[in-house]
Design a protein that fits this description.
The chain has helices at residues 2-15, 27-39, 52-81, 86-94. The protein is mainly alpha-helical.
Length: 97
């Protein structure tokens, strides 16, 4: 699922530069978007015994990709609503200001 979130996030950043012009793209902010997205998705654990479970996963992939795009957008909206870089805010709080 993390790979799908990474791919959806990269696509969203590339496809919508105007919407995301004010979004910070540092590694901490991107990780925050990813964490928020993953927290909005159902956990999906795969064990592959003779490919049976993996085949079931592939059948759900189309719905999963839609869910992933929605979750990534929630992560982006959360970052934008927060007013700025997560790293800068963390440093600010850490330094006691």
């Amino acid at each position: 699922m993390e790979t799908m979130v990474d791919e959806a996030l990269a696509k969203e950043l590339a496809d919508n530069p105007a919407r995301l012009a004010e979004a910070c793209r540092c590694s901490v902010c991107l990780a925050s978007i990813k964490a928020t997205a993953l927290n909005h998705l159902k956990p999906f654990y795969v064990t592959c015994i003779a490919g049976e479970v993996f085949g079931e996963y592939r059948g759900k992939e189309l719905q999963n990709s839609s869910d992933v795009r929605v979750a990534v957008n929630k992560g982006i909206e959360t970052l934008l609503a927060g007013g700025g870089c997560v790293l800068a805010f963390t440093v600010y709080i850490f330094n006691g200001f």
